[in-house]
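Re: weekly structure request thread

Next one in the queue (366 aa):
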Amino acid sequence: MAPRAEAMDTIAREAILMDAQTGAVLFNKDADNLMPPASMSKLMTVYMVFERLKEGSLSLDDEFVVSENAWRKGNWASGGSTMFLEPGQRVRVEDLLQGIIVQSGNDACVVVAEAMAGSEDAFAELMTEKAKEIGLKNSTFRNASGWPHPEHRMTAHDLAILAKRTINDFPEFYHYYSERKFTYNDHTQYNRNALLGKGLGVDGLKTGHTENAGYGLTASAERRDRRLILVVNGLPDKKARRIEPQRLLEWGFREFKNYPLFKAGEEIDKIGIWLGDKAEVPLIVTDEMVLTLPRKERAGMKATVEYSTPVPAPVKAGDRMGTLTLTFPERDAIEVPLIAGDGAERLGLFGRVMSAVRSIILGVSG
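Done, posted below.
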């Protein structure tokens, strides 16, 4: 449920602000346009490593060998970010992760790709397959680092989804994204995410920059048990990458709030049953329902329940019986299915006759 378009603007070429719990998009500026993600695509490379670590087929203490190819692609003279690895060196997986996340090392990305898939091209294909599997509909990878390639494309929306999946799928590893510096081979480098440690609640994730992409940031911030995810790209310089994300995050935390409405399985109403062994069954919602709304619009929300009664038996638990409709002054209504929380069997012949007689005499159903 997005705010009105005029509520906020940004100088970023593409941007999206999402609530991490509900997935509600609070702000969208060309977030589904294909764009060069630069080093923000390293989030997918790291996701692949995290997945192997979680399933147990890889350990933080495992070592990968630096090939001549990985060294050449990541050498500082190539113009990209580097971890300053040396050919033939054996490097722990944990160090490579920190080299990718904190130092944005292209060399570390190639080392990981070659070790896990045999070549960077093969690893990029696996990245694209995994992206589709986890809900990234418009992402195509041609390398592991985000190095410029005309077919290496993502969307801001996909990056936000990837950040959300990273946080939810790998809470035991997410802390690496909040590290502010890392030293390897006597080279200390600092995280380019300028919002870390500034009292903003930002604890990740990844910056990006190439001449074609501009300056970008995929960030996440948590305040008072509420988390927002922000992606901006196409900014003109580092200063804008520091200021624009902060401004958008402040707006999102200030103007919106999460409102818990129903718990999973919560009873909303009861519905009468005709000729059943129960006179009525509860109507429930299947899933927990939390809405992200502008604070000023919560008071205008109305809820109505629609169903036809009585319902003839038999009724099975889980049958859809009605609809809960939430309406708002300035946005589309939301319809939520209501299902039977319990079943009701059809009465036998004698029971049906007695129920019908009781209905006629007493004017009651069931």
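The chain has two domains: 5-258, 265-362. The radius of gyration is 27 Å.
Next request, please.
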